């Protein structure tokens, strides 16, 4: 499934390559730390609870939205799923916040 149009009750199916992304648009952010911690080069994101941690950079907008730029391509990123931000320190991984996938 590459797109869902709920208003018209339509589902669009396409090839797997259509699901591969390097950019993720987020809305309704919930941050647990200040912006300075999120500007680090050591930011990881997770787009599925069982997914792997992906290295990336988060660019924030003033309207509680953000654009995540991943270092690697990832598939299976779906609107409505959570995208959670992490960093790693001497104690392990720490949750920094997250948002809802928009695109």
What does this protein structure show overall?
- The protein has one helix spanning 35-38; strands at residues 3-5, 10-12, 21-31, 44-46, 54-60, 66-74, 82-89, 92-101.
- The protein is built from one helix and eight strands; from the N terminus they run βββαβββββ.
- It is globular.
- The mean pLDDT is 89.
- It has 103 residues and is mainly β.
- Strands 3-6-5-4-7-8 form a six-stranded antiparallel β-barrel. Strands 1-2 form a two-stranded antiparallel sheet.
- The two termini are 13 Å apart.
What would a concise description of this structure say?
By secondary structure, the protein is mostly beta strands. The protein is 4% helix and 52% strand. The longest helix is centred in the middle third of the chain and has 4 residues, at 35-38.
Features:
mainly beta; 1 helix; six-stranded antiparallel β-barrel; 52% strand; 103 residues
Write the topology of this structure.
Elements: E1 3-5, E2 10-12, E3 21-31, H1 35-38, E4 44-46, E5 54-60, E6 66-74, E7 82-89, E8 92-101
Antiparallel strand pairs: 1-2, 3-6, 3-8, 4-5, 4-7, 5-6, 7-8
